[in-house]
Specification:
Elements lengths: L6 H8 L4 E4 L2 H6 L6 E4 L4 H13 L3 H8 L6 H13 L4
Parallel strand pairs: 1-2
Length: 91
């Protein structure tokens, strides 16, 4: 069993920190490979090690990935979108 959508991804994104994760399940959906983080092959320790070295040594990679992380929803944005949804007639 693996954790499909760990909360640590949202926590990392809240601090604009790119994530290295397996490219499976909810993790692959939340972390876009090469855009907001990096994917590794599930269960492949060598790929994980290589990706960690790449993340640590590629000039500008962390900054580029960080900039692509979308802003986290805040309470006012969340409330506003709910009010908009509930205030509009059902289609």
């Amino acid at each position: 069993w693996y954790e499909n959508s760990p909360i640590v991804i949202q926590e990392a994104f809240a601090s604009r920190t790119p994530v290295i994760c397996s490219g499976i399940g909810g993790m692959a959906e939340k972390v876009e490979d090469g855009v907001t983080g990096l994917h590794v092959r599930h269960g492949d320790a060598r790929d994980l090690a290589d990706t960690m070295v790449k993340a640590a040594t590629t000039v500008g990679l962390r900054e580029r990935l960080s900039e692509a992380i979308p802003a986290m929803p805040d309470m006012s944005r969340s409330v506003g979108s709910h009010l908009e949804l509930y205030g509009s007639p059902a289609e």
